[in-house]
Design the sequence.
């Protein structure tokens, strides 16, 4: 059953408020087991059972040779966002608590740079260029084409949560992976964020 305008607004406000609790991607070290990639607060709502549009199923970035199925990522029992398992390091995931790619809002795709099994799906993401095409398709064959507007490498201690996950009426996409050197525990210290907008 479609949401009424009143309930849609209430849901949008709840998601916008909860999204401010999201934090950086972690757990991309090659020798570590996968850990939650994005921390959320206990009040973060569970992802919707039925997205407003068909769920995305495939990601392609022709300039980097990326062609990946998309896993649906939800929340773990502790309120953290799931990441693709290390055994599926060459597969990216769509955070279903955000926007559906191509719909209004920020859609977020998360992928590993490396796992204990080796090179992963977003290993070469640092080489993406402004203006590059990113295509996200759904099971019905519909495609949403995005153009890269910029990239940003940030310290995990100063992750720009509002900029990445905040509410927006624009149809935008963010790709997130780990980046940079490693701390004493062997965890990457930075995140690489790719920003793109619908063409």
Sequence:
């Amino acid at each position: 059953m479609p949401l009424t305008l009143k309930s849609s607004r209430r849901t949008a406000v709840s998601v916008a408020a909860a999204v401010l609790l999201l934090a950086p991607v972690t757990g991309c070290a090659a020798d570590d087991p996968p850990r939650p990639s994005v921390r959320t607060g206990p009040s973060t709502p569970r992802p919707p059972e039925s997205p407003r549009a068909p769920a995305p199923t495939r990601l392609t970035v022709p300039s980097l040779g990326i062609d990946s199925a998309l896993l649906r990522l939800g929340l773990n029992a502790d309120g953290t966002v799931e990441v693709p398992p290390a055994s599926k390091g060459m597969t990216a995931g769509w955070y279903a608590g955000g926007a559906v790619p191509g719909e209004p809002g920020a859609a977020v795709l998360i992928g590993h740079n490396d796992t204990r099994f080796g090179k992963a799906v977003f290993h070469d993401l640092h080489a993406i260029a402004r203006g590059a095409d990113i295509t996200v398709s759904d099971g019905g064959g519909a495609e949403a084409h995005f153009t890269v507007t910029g990239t940003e490498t940030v310290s995990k201690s100063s992750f720009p949560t509002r900029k990445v996950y905040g509410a927006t009426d624009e149809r935008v996409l963010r790709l997130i992976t780990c980046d940079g050197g490693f701390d004493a525990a062997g965890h990457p210290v930075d995140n690489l964020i790719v920003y793109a907008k619908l063409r």
